[in-house]
Amino acid sequence: MADVSPTEKPTSGGIVELRVHGVSGSGADQVLNRPYVHQVAGDRSGGFYRPRPGYPDSTGTGGVTLEAYRWSDLPSGTAVRTLSLVFLLPFMLCNVALWMHPAIHGWKNVVVALCRVLALTLTMLYVLSIVGVAVDLIAWRCMGTPSCMTDRSWLSWLGGRPTGLRLGVLALMPVAAIGLVWWLSTRLSHSFDAFHTRDPAPSKHRLSAVGQWDGAPLVGRLRSVHVAAAFATLDGSLLAARASQHRSVAMVVLLTATGAVLLTCLVLLIAVRSIDRTDPAPGMDAFFRGLRTIACGVTILVIVHIVISPAPWSNSRSLPGYGAIVAWLFVSQTVLVVILAAVVIWRRGGGRPAPLRALGAPVLVTIAAGLAVAFSAELVYRTADLLDGGGTTADGLVTSPPLAYKWAIFGFFLAVLSALLAAGVVTVLTRRSRWRAARAIVAADFPHAPPEAAERLRQVEQTVARARFTEWLEPLTVVYAGLAAFGLATSALGLFQIFPGDVLQQYVGLPEGFVNFFIGTGSYVIAALILGLVIGGIFAYRTAGFRRYVGVLWDLGTFWPRAAHPFAPPCYAERAVPELAKRISYLVEQGQGVLLTGHSHGSVLLAATVLQLPPRITDRVALLTHGSPLRRLYSRLFPASVNVSALEEIGERVGWRWVNLWRDTDPIGGWIFAPHRAGGSETPAGPAAVDRRLTDPLDVVPPPSDSVPPPILAHWPSESEKAFADAARDLIARLHPGRPGTG
């Protein structure tokens, strides 16, 4: 962190209002609402800014010193990292799923182990998709078919070569793909090693672990396991093809070594306590690195064996064993998801059957697996379509992809259509109740609205009704996850060489041609989804306004440390939270009081920060949150990490000097402890006094000085509102050294 410049050195006994923005990526001048700012600490990725001294209005409410922490470049600061968030999306979702399980006493390690094994299957699927393109479609099918080689000079250099040589050379593509994700997972855009809280305050809540614990050892061990399993997956695919026509002592040895590597990877992931150790363990870390090295060595031997083996190869149309391996992987993912869901549902109630809620872990890991399967199937399917330019891909020609991928595309597209239909039904069925509640809220807020404000009142009611739809996203997501799991399970039919068209024609009556058209359309939908994610990533990097819409997913996904999948994007909170804690501690040690104000996701960063501050620091800290998703979203999605107990501990640490501003028009933020609070100049201690509801908009008729009514702010920041200034003034008064605290 940069040293504090002399021009911003605080005066002892003053108050600093430290503002932390949300996911919009606003500049420091926008956060401070001051046109001229300068950086006083941090760097270009995450820095602290203040208004330039000497300009008018450089202070905040009550003359406090204003300061802003800008962190928006940490999760997506470069174009490469932004695009990596798109391609690594399934890995990121799988990692987040591990943090979403409810408090399951005695069964936490079981859930963690299941999530990590499922994460490993995603890595294996990633490798199998590259194997399907390079080894199966290109090396085995296309290069073995003269008609496919026609007019393809970029493939002719290997055309007519021995099968083993073709497979060995093209196997270097999966090796390169493994090396790519290996490199991406180790190359961090920012070094987080120096950002650790020196004097962390002990807390029993998992939210306090964000940015506090050193995750490098765990991520390194997981990375070694995944790299080893990735190479073993490639080895298994090559050896399965070779074993179909040839068996030898070397083959048995290589198969045994490959199986031993995979089995060791599974055992290590299941041994949660051993792999999670944070204390120095040179022997253990050396064992993990050794496993990775052995897997690399076995891969070299396998490729050499494939190239030099003189035995003849099978004449089958597809790479022997490849389709079965893919189908069995899909079956394994389905079984693991079902087991995870059963454990979460059963053990959530302490051994008694629990209702279908708090299913974040199995739901999100199912969505992650569904996306990974869809992306992999689309890669293989689209490559097959490119190679088979003279016919339709769905007809099962020479370069047609394995049946498991066809079932995967069919299941994914069917799940998406069914989920959209369910969303439409829910929207219609809940519309009346949402509008009824919205009308009651608006009628209470504007009881004396004139008749000419009828149109504006309806706009406000519509905004409130739409905001209340957030509560229905959770069951809709569960429905989609169930459909995705069913679609994943149907991929097992590929093991029995059953075509989707045959099944639906026999049992549903749909013509086979229509089913093939359905599969082709599903493939284009997946391609459009991938293209949309890429374009969204580029626009999010280039356009701050667009980042507001896609930033919620990114910031949520990269907020939590990598504890399930090592190839997920790095956790930016490993820098942001300790950096905030260090800055707050510095200001307090200089004799300052600190008013922390956080909007949207900034309030989550501040919540994790407060849990890390020692009492000598929090005694001089107050908290003002607005548009906060802590209770409305985070406590639902992460019940074991962000719950009422954790929120109450935050309030106790700051002596209940905490005010939360929320609006009914906000689809993301909400109340923390109490849904309704009129507010006032004096705020008593306790959780019931934290929440203050804001009327939005301020009025439905134009003020005398304007020609249009005040805007509907919804989730926009509240710094420019009078209610924000009143809350800040209240908290500043309670932070003043001359007034005793209320804690």
UniProtKB/TrEMBL annotation:
The chain crosses the membrane at residues 79-100, 120-143, 164-184, 249-272, 293-313, 325-346, 358-377, 407-429, 478-499, 519-541. The keyword Transmembrane applies. Keywords: Membrane, Transmembrane, Transmembrane helix. It comes from Micromonospora luteifusca. The keyword rRNA-binding does not apply. This is Integral membrane protein. Signal peptide: none annotated.
